Recover the amino acids of this structure.
């Protein structure tokens, strides 16, 4: 919910209705979306006028900077149907790695659109320690994603999920204070599922 930011504010305070956008485009900024390259996809975001100027110069279309149809945020949004096909044609002319080098050098916010496998191999994934190993008695070592939420310096232990009823006595007796009669009544009433299930 926190990632909704201002689309949520617009929805809460006006008659704004979010719509699905083509190529994950920003709801109001143009260009700010995914573009197909010769061999993949990149995201380019021009959230400031300086990025728009840098972009058109970097991609070899400097005349667009002076084109009155695209001179402001509002103009680019109003003429997106004309502008975006121009940009799409340019981005399809080179592979992703070339565009990233060009745009990063020019100071244009950009990023590759990774596959899941690429995202898992990304340097930032490793630097953040986002993949952890967990030992499981049946499946061996399982690799899984770590929570991105970090509080303090303490490092949590990552363990497998408990087996069914593994902590039942601890929860029912120690935490809830139930006695044998209460537990048996719950069991008879089917509160713990069918008997015999693992």
């Amino acid at each position: 919910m926190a990632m909704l930011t201002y689309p949520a504010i617009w929805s809460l305070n006006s008659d704004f209705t979010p719509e699905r956008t083509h190529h994950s485009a920003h709801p109001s900024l143009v260009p700010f979306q995914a573009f197909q390259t010769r061999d993949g996809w990149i995201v380019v975001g021009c959230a400031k006028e300086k990025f728009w100027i840098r972009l058109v110069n970097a991609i070899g279309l400097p005349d667009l900077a002076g084109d009155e149809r695209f001179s402001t945020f509002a103009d680019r949004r109003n003429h997106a149907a004309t502008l975006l096909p121009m940009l799409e044609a340019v981005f399809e002319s080179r592979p992703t790695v070339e565009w990233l080098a060009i745009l990063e050098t020019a100071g244009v916010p950009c990023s590759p659109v990774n596959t899941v496998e690429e995202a898992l191999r990304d340097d930032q994934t490793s630097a953040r320690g986002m993949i952890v190993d967990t030992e499981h008695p049946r499946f061996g070592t399982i690799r899984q994603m770590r929570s991105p939420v970090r509080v303090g310096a303490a490092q949590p232990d990552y363990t497998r999920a408990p087996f069914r009823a593994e902590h039942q006595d601890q929860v029912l007796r120690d935490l809830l204070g139930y006695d044998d009669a209460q537990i048996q009544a719950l069991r008879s009433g089917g509160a713990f599922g069918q008997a015999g299930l693992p």
